[in-house]
Structure formats: C-alpha cells, structure tokens
Amino acid sequence: MRDQENQAGSTAQDEGIAVRQAAIPTSAITLLSLALFLAAWEVFGRDVNPIFGSYPSAIAVAAWDMLRDGKLLAALSDSLRPFFLGYGIAIVIGVPLGLVIGRFRVMEAALGIYVTAGYAMPLVALVPLLILWLGLGFAVKVAIVFLMSVFPICINTWLGVAAVPKSLIEVGRSFVASDVTILRRIVLPATLPYIMAGIRLAVGRAVVAMVINSANNFDTARMFVPILVLMVMATGLNALIGAIERKVAPWQAEISGRSKGN
To answer: Which of 19-28, 61-70, 88-97, 185-194 has the lowest mean pLDDT?
Structure first.
C-alpha cells in the first residue's frame, strides 16, 4: 500500500514538473540563453586584447559603420544571389536523385558510390580547380554552394527512402499501383522528415561555401560583423525550414512528441 502511495506521489511530482516545463515557452528559454551569453561575452570580452577578439557592443558599432558606408550590404548582395541559386539547385537536384537512388536498386548500384564519394570529398580543396574552370565570377560561386549542399540533401533523402517500412510498399502494390505512384504517394510523404533534415544540414554547408566566396569582400579588421551576420542568417534559415517542415509534415511533431510550444 505504501509503495503504491509513493509511486502515486512520484507520478504526481513528475507530472507537476512536466507542467511547469511546458508552461515556459521555448522562445523565452532561447532568448534568456542568448541574453546571458551576450552579457557574459560583453563583460569578459572587454578584457581581451582587441587583436584577438572583440565584444558585442563594439561589433554593433562596427556593423553600423559598415551599414552606413554600404560595404556590408554590397558584400551581402554579391553573396546572397549565388547562395540562394546554388542552394535552390541543390534541393531541386538532390531530392529527386536521393528518391531514385533509394527506391531503385539499379540506380543505387550505379550512382550511390558517386554520391557517397562526393559527400566525403574535401570540396574546399576543389575551389582552385573550379576557379580555373569557371573563372572568378558568378558561376563559380553558384557551383561551390551547389556542391557543398547537394550531397547531404541527397544522402538524407536516400536514407529516408531506405527507412520506409516495407509494409507500406506492399500495400501500394496490393492496389496495383505503379512504381511512380508508389514513389509519389507513399515513399515521398514518408521520407519528408529526412528530406527536411537534409535541407537543414545543407544550410550550414552552403553558408560555409558563402564564406569561401565572400572572403575577399569583407573588411578583415571588422571580421566579426560578417561572421555574426552569416551565423544569424543560417539560424534564421534553419528556423524557416523547420516551420516549413511543420507545415508539410505536421505528423512528425506528433510522432516525436514535440509540440510547437515544447
């Protein structure tokens, strides 16, 4: 009897903790964490030699100066156009390629090895060769972003197709559905969480590619400004992709037990 009472009390306590945690919005926790981080950086960063580091208020002043003289906006404009084009092409090519490789054994045997090798290849080392082939203009920037982004998207999609339960495929075949119909109506919806995860991973690699492309556009004396701008941009894109995922695959949050506020 006493054990049952203790167990009931422990359960009630756990439920109370869960309720208190659910009462705190995720955004509030994130903002508090960010505020504490910036405050600590501001306090301790002032004691660091300016040659080796900086602090938020000084970076904000430098960012304002770069905005006023137009350098920051010009550099971002030159970098964002190839970024979005290369990243968009990577999604358009990477997702269908991953679906095909994951769904058809012949395609996996023929193309899977190249995708795996491409993902493991040090693409940064290919930059000089790409410059020789494409020059120093817009095309080489798009190519670098594309190559850095397409492989994680393709591989994640490929793994997602491989994880689709065989029973779902058998249901489609029992209704005499064609391979294209199974791919479009069964495999694609089941693979959406993997596809979105690959797209989110590719954002970070695409931003790295943009840094490579933009290395000569930013003033190195105020290097923290572009670094933070790119970090904020990557975080914003990641959040945007997460919102899109909640729209196109709302069942994933229910399956994982994570709601919008948790």
So the answer is: 19-28
Whether this prediction's pTM lies above 0.85 is answered by no
192: burial class by Cβ within 10 Å (0-12, 13-18, 19+)?
A: middle
d(CA 86, CA 141): 8
pLDDT digits (tens, 9 = 90+) for 112-128: 999 998 888 887 778 88
Element (H, E) at 248: helix 224-248
Spell out a b/e string for 161-189, using b for 16 or more CB atoms within 10 Å of the CB, else e.
beebeeeebeebeeeebeeeebbeebbbe
**48: CB partners within 8 A, 6+ apart:** 54, 55
Phi, psi of 22, deg, nearest 5: -70, -25
Superfamily (CATH H level) for 56-256: MetI-like (1.10.3720.10)
Element (H, E) at 20: helix 2-23
Q: Which of 228, 213, 215 is closest to 63 using CA atoms?
A: 228
Cα–Cα dist 256/49, whole Å: 46
